[in-house]
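[audit] Reproducing an earlier prediction to check determinism. Same input, same settings, fresh worker. If the tokens differ from the archived copy the diff job will pick it up downstream; this log only records the rerun itself.
[audit] input (270 residues):
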Amino acid sequence: LDAVRDFVLQQGAKPFCRILSNRLSTPVQPGDIQEIRIRTEKHGALYHVASVEPVTKTGSCKLAVSTAVSPRARACLAREEECLVDLGRRFGLCYLPTPLLSAEVSCGASGTAQPARMLLVEWFEGFHEWHLSGDTQGNPERVHLWDSTGGYRFATNAVPRTLFHEIARILTLCYDMGTFEQILSWHHAAGDFVVCTSKTPLQVRLTTVRDYQPLPGLSPEAGIQPLVALVYFFLNLLVRMRLDRHEGVGELLWAGEWAVRSAVTGFFDA
């Protein structure tokens, strides 16, 4: 947490203040920051995620910081930043977070400090992680919403179908028809897609992009025709859409036919 503080206050907090001025639509100077609330949010296989909420004289906003310590994790986080910047430039869609600031910082006590890479992005306020959850017969027909504010609950009515429709639509919108590049290595089990059910229509966001390239062996350079590449994208999408783990960490779950129907309509809508 100290390292996150040092990260956002680097260079006398000038880069951070430029970001805040943008987010709050008013000039913010270092002296205007009254406090910064840093809260640990999630620890994953590669990163630690914290929320950062600066409070100024004119308002506050919430941002997210991903921290990577191991060499592999630092390389992965650098690649994710590259992918997010690239996709933002190509498509300009609202479904992905915008990278705001990144740097290598020292993390830990003096003498035992380790290099860490940090990436600051926007926080999707009101959006929650979700996972498939089996019923008493083990059928993964239910979507469990991890709403830490309103309470954990199971999605009702058409929410699961709309959720899967939107995920497939977002992934298809990010598919490059010319290069066959696509978002790879996304997982429901990792909580990559988050959902906001308090708005109508329901809204979905993708929290990160680990890689963006064609499927192996399916590039224009390999002589693959666009329609063939698109069919492989479609089939891979339908399979991956059905896979999750119980509550994100338990046994593998395979969503029912409803997930396929929703993903198909999302693909064709895109």
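[audit] rerun output stored. Observation attached for the diff report: DSSP finds six helices and 14 strands in the chain.
[audit] end
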